[in-house]
Design a protein that fits this description.
The protein folds into 3 domains: 104 residues, no CATH class; 170 residues, no CATH class; 94 residues, Immunoglobulin-like. The protein has 11 helices and 16 strands. The chain is an alpha+beta fold. Helix content is 28%, strand content 25%. The strands form 3 sheets. The chain has a 6-stranded antiparallel beta barrel with strand order 1-2-3-15-14-4. A 5-stranded mixed β-sheet has the order 7-16-13-9-11. The protein has a 4-stranded antiparallel β-sheet with strand order 6-8-12-10, with no helix packed on it. Helix 5 crosses helix 6. The termini are far apart.
């Protein structure tokens, strides 16, 4: 069949939460509040300094935020174009008349699609945006009859434009485009949802019965354009890949994205030759210059092909999934991403250089030691420092150590706060 193609047309860190305070009968409440509020800014400042010193750690925790472009074609639903009527019967004996037939879609970048609805209660809305998808994640993903629905599409209207021949096969007197579309849609609904639905036109009903009875199981169709896998990673100095092209197009263009161009990343084949055009089964690699900072880049593939019959389009609402019954030559797009992660240069904690103070999380979480006669410890307390000062210098090793340090700073009680035996008494 053929369809006429129209003219194309780094966030600031959140403040650390205040830890619960335990009442101390030997300490005046107002003074404790003042000292607690003085220590909180210290903890917040340490947290900000650690985050600034370890941007790679924060970025790794956040992960990539950019969403990938859909693979294959994207389209806008024009609406129901060729249809008849059907009657949906409920379990309670109710009957409701609904339209049944072919929808049309306009493909982004050029092309037209003809589709049927998968869900009988979908009420697909004109001008809704749809993207091409596989069966997985849609109502057809776990449906044992999905392959039979594809058979119906391949053996009925509009794939078969010979309406006289189709009527003869179905045992119908005659079929129009409207009755053929209605009968085909009714058969799809029966297989997809197991509902009791009948075409109002007797000839369309005969076609629906024939299609449901004769349908065999076919495999899921391939994408119009896709890559496998969508993301690859590797070390600098190697060819990162491969990414394999899957398409029905004769060839597709291959273009590095803006990030790749800015960093001098090239797209090459297995022998290192630059690639600008690829065909089905072609393998692509990312070639990243030595000395490039750790990061990622992408490639964009574009082509023009017919979207396979039986491919589905989704709008985000499962009940509104559409399934392709016919396609003109249509634009399709796919993307792939290459990553080259940085190898951390920090030493393991158990391999620290001699003389470097390393405090484990367990030690930081333990209760603070009691004050001793050592006057140096008293001076440290009065100056706002602590025995954990070396840990502050190595906060970039990990935020886990920072968490333990904050606990220590908030819980440790300065020695100068301890009341003297004569405090609060008048000498005799």
């Amino acid at each position: 069949m053929s369809i006429a193609v129209p003219a194309s047309s780094a966030p600031a860190p959140a403040p650390a939460p205040a830890l619960p305070r335990v009442a101390d009968p030997g300490r005046a409440a107002p003074a404790a509040a003042v000292r607690g509020s003085a220590r909180r800014p210290i903890a917040g400042a340490l947290l900000a300094a650690a985050l600034a010193a370890a941007p790679g750690t924060v970025a790794a925790a956040a992960g990539p935020t950019a969403s990938r472009a859909p693979e294959g074609a994207s389209a806008v639903l024009d609406g129901l174009k060729t249809y008849g009527q059907a009657v949906l019967r409920g379990a309670d004996g109710s009957a409701r008349q609904i339209p049944a037939g072919l929808y049309e879609m306009r493909v982004d970048g050029g092309g037209m699609l003809q589709t049927y609805g998968v869900g009988i209660t979908g009420n697909a809305q004109p001008q809704a945006r749809y993207t091409e998808s596989g069966w997985s994640g849609t109502p057809l993903g776990g449906n044992a009859e999905a392959g039979r629905i594809r058979w119906v599409l391949e053996h009925s209207y509009p794939q078969l434009n010979d309406l006289a021949g189709l009527a003869k096969a179905a045992g119908a007197a005659a079929l129009t485009a409207e009755s053929a579309a209605a009968g085909t849609q009714v058969a799809i609904w029966r297989l997809a949802e197991g509902v009791r639905v009948e075409a109002v036109d007797p000839q369309a009903e005969k076609l629906a019965d024939y299609l449901q009875r004769a349908a065999a199981r076919l495999p899921e169709p391939p994408a119009s354009l896709a890559v496998e896998p969508g993301e690859v990673s590797g070390a600098l100095g190697t060819r990162i890949g491969p990414v394999t092209v899957r398409t029905g197009a004769h060839s597709v263009s291959v273009t590095p994205d803006a990030a790749a161009l800015a960093m001098g990343v090239r797209v090459v084949d297995a022998e290192g030759r630059p690639v600008t055009v690829a065909a089905n089964g072609g393998q692509l690699f990312f070639e990243v210059p030595e000395g490039t900072p750790d990061g990622s880049a992408g490639i964009v593939l574009r082509g023009s092909t017919r979207v396979p019959v039986g491919r589905v389009f989704t709008s985000g609402v499962p009940a509104q999934v559409q399934i392709v019954a016919g396609s003109s030559e249509s634009a399709a797009v796919a993307t792939a991403t290459g990553r080259w992660p940085r190898v951390p240069a920090a030493q393991p904690v158990d391999a620290a250089a001699p003389g470097t103070g390393v405090t484990t999380l367990g030690a930081l979480s333990a209760a603070a030691p009691a004050a001793g006669p050592d006057t140096a410890e008293a001076r440290l307390a009065s100056s706002g420092s602590s025995a954990a000062t070396p840990v502050i210098a190595s906060l970039a090793v990990g935020l886990v150590v920072l968490g333990g340090l904050v606990v220590l700073l908030l819980r440790k009680r300065p020695l100068e706060d301890t009341p003297t035996p004569n405090q609060g008494h008048t000498p005799e």
